[in-house]
Automatic annotation (TrEMBL):
Residues covered by the NAD-dependent epimerase/dehydratase domain: 6-208
CDD domains in the record: NDUFA9_like_SDR_a
Regions that span the bilayer: none
GO-annotated molecular function: protein-containing complex binding
Taxonomy, superkingdom: Bacteria
UniProt xrefs under InterPro entries: ComplexI_NDUFA9_subunit (IPR051207), Epimerase_deHydtase (IPR001509), NAD(P)-bd_dom_sf (IPR036291)
The organism of origin for this protein: Sulfurifustis variabilis
UniProt xrefs under Pfam families: Epimerase (PF01370)
SUPFAM superfamilies hit by this protein: NAD(P)-binding Rossmann-fold domains
UniProt protein name: Epimerase
């Protein structure tokens, strides 16, 4: 693949950093918008990467950043909305993808990769999943000249993730008993490097134009199994107390009022949908030739007792 100009929205985040590293290895030039240039100067170690300070929700700013770009990648997303009405979900997951697609058309960009979520549908129980579905549709509603590919991963793990590391932090504070909402919810977690590899591999592939791909890891776990594994790696002896539906909803209602909103009622509703690929639907190996990485192969590197995740 020849060197390309890529604008990476969400490039300062967990998945974005993995994609930025792969793009740099391939010799591609990158433009990464950020609200605060000073906070992400470590990304400048990648040759050809430029940080641009600005607001990605401003259409004129998007158009300027997309000028001269061969590819735009949109990874921007949130797990919770700061307002109770969920307006932030609409702004980030629905309105922004529409603005991105429009700005691509205006700037003459021909390739757009979009991050969605596994089982994002219009009738999903959570606002997170419903707005992810609407944003995916907004991206694909662009003119045929804009070749769009969407990715729908299960929960993504890696040394900087907000999933295994959050449970590791909570477990360290647990006084011997760990109350866990929705313990039987099922996940097929996928490694961040595998996701990044799929994104980069899709850029030149004509067969991926207009397609939407589910991305999952090699194994299905219940939430209880994942938390127990994290506790084992931490050397933490704790009893995991699985909560029933009523107590799970109550925990969500209480914790969404806590600083940082570690768990919310919308998160609870998302957990009622198993984050698992349908049989034969995992595109990692079949489409992109990526052998999915097991959680057990890499998680000890950042979760083993005495280690801390990089900041």
């Amino acid at each position: 693949m020849p060197a390309l100009n890529v604008c990476l929205l969400g490039g300062t985040g967990f998945v974005g950093r993995a994609i930025a590293a792969r793009l740099a290895q391939g010799g591609h030039r990158q433009r990464v918008p950020t609200r605060r240039h000073a906070n992400h100067r470590d990304l400048l170690v990648h040759p050809g990467l430029v940080l641009v300070e600005g607001d990605v929700h401003e259409p004129s700013f998007l158009r300027r950043q997309f000028e001269g770009m061969d590819v735009v990648i949109n990874l921007v997303g949130i797990l919770n909305s700061r307002d109770r009405a969920g307006r932030q979900f609409e702004r980030v997951h629905v309105e922004l993808p529409g603005k991105v697609a429009q700005a691509c058309e205006q700037a003459g960009v021909k390739r757009l990769l979009h991050m969605s979520a596994l089982h994002a549908t219009r009738d999903a129980p959570s606002r997170y999943l419903r707005t992810k579905a609407a944003g995916e549709e907004a991206a694909h509603a662009a003119s045929p000249e804009l070749r769009v590919t969407s990715f729908r991963p299960s929960v993504i793990f890696g040394s900087r993730d907000g999933f295994t590391n959050r449970f590791a932090g909570l477990l360290r504070l647990a006084p011997g008993v760990f109350p866990l909402a929705c313990p039987d919810s099922r996940f097929q977690p996928v490694y961040v490097e595998d996701v990044a590899q799929a994104f980069v591999a899709a850029i030149p592939e004509h067969r991926t134009f207009g397609r939407r791909y589910d991305l999952c890891g090699p194994r299905i776990y219940t939430l209880r199994e994942i938390v127990a594994y994290v506790a084992e790696l931490q050397g933490k002896r704790v009893r995991i107390l699985g909560l029933g539906d009523r107590l799970s909803r109550l925990q969500a209602a209480v914790l969404e009022l806590a600083p940082g909103k570690p768990f919310s009622r919308d998160n609870y509703r998302s957990l009622t949908v198993d984050s698992v690929c349908a049989e034969g639907a995992n595109a990692l190996r079949g489409v992109f030739g990526v052998m999915p990485t097991p959680l057990e192969r890499v998680a000890p590197g950042w979760l083993t007792r005495g280690r801390t995740a990089p900041r």
